[in-house]
TrEMBL record:
Residues 13-245 form the ABC transporter domain. The keyword Hydrolase does not apply. It comes from uncultured Thermomicrobiales bacterium. This is Manganese ABC transporter, ATP-binding protein SitB. PANTHER family: IRON TRANSPORT SYSTEM ATP-BINDING PROTEIN HI_0361-RELATED, METAL TRANSPORT SYSTEM ATP-BINDING PROTEIN TM_0124-RELATED. InterPro entries: AAA+_ATPase, ABC_transporter-like_ATP-bd, ABC_transporter-like_CS, Metal_Ion_Import_ABC, P-loop_NTPase. The keyword Zinc does not apply.
């Protein structure tokens, strides 16, 4: 019999009663969500649903009007060393004069502290991360000269360099080519095999059940969350997207939808 005095380890992400508003307009309303450890979770929903805001609030980038988010049982400010973040590619200034290796090496600053300069070991780690995403040959290339898919792989390599336990990714598949998409999927599966947790905003509903273990359907309020087989249903998708979505042939409950606006 288990000892009732021993509590279970806190989940990677726990969201309770979370409300976020921009200029008095709720973007997230009373959201409760628990992300289990060692899983790949997709956050899906229509434009304006609050998907990116949910990630940014968890990261302390956007203030909550009510409720809270905890990372492994504590506020993000106390756990930032356990978390890596891949922002939307469109939010990054790609004209910044730096090369791919330097961008990835920046991922080591959390382990070093900002007052120490990265040395040979940090650059070796960064190069290995570039190899993992197929970008080692582009280490010296200016990031402005890379294609969109290559830029995304560099940012994924930077996240790998952080050696985090929890990865937040905001639309990692958006605008990438098929080769990069396959590379990202393999990367995510590798993280899961290491016991890491990934929470990703995702827009292609056709691939949810192929790429992810868990899903959260969000439209300001949380519609449903849980294993893809349980939560990713016709009814929940209709509640999330309304009549703006068409369905492919599938099982009686399942029927991954066509790509919807994110």
């Amino acid at each position: 019999m288990s000892d009732p005095t021993i509590s279970a380890a806190p989940p990677p992400v726990e969201v309770r009663d979370l409300t976020v508003a921009y200029q008095a307009r709720p973007v997230l309303w009373d959201v409760d969500l628990v992300v289990p450890e060692g899983k790949l979770m997709a956050i899906v929903g229509p434009n304006g649903a609050g998907k990116s805001t949910l990630l940014k609030t968890a990261l302390g980038l956007v203030p909550a009007a009510a409720g809270w988010v905890k990372i492994f049982g504590r506020p993000y400010a106390e756990q930032r060393h356990l978390v890596a973040y891949v922002p939307q590619r469109g939010s990054v200034d790609w004209d910044f004069p730096t090369n791919a290796l330097d961008v990835v090496t920046m991922g080591r600053y959390g382990a070093l502290g900002w007052l120490r300069r990265p040395g040979k070991r940090e650059r070796e780690v960064a190069m290995e991360c570039l190899r993992q995403v197929g970008m080692a040959d582009f280490a010296g290339r200016q990031i402005s000269q890379l294609s969109g898919g290559q830029q995304q792989r560099v940012f994924l390599a930077r996240a790998l360099a952080q050696d985090a336990r929890l990865y937040f990714m905001d639309e990692p598949f958006a605008g990438v080519d098929a080769t990069t998409e396959r590379a990202i999927v393999e990367l995510l599966r590798g993280l899961r095999a290491e016991g890491k947790t990934v929470v990703a905003v995702h827009h292609d509903l056709q691939t949810v059940d192929h790429y992810f273990d868990e899903v959260a359907l969000l439209n300001v309020r949380l519609v449903a969350a849980g294993p893809v087989a349980d939560a990713f249903t016709h009814d929940n998708l209709h509640l999330t997207y309304g009549g703006r979505i068409g369905f492919l042939a599938g099982g009686p409950d399942h029927g991954p939808a066509t790509s919807a606006a994110d």
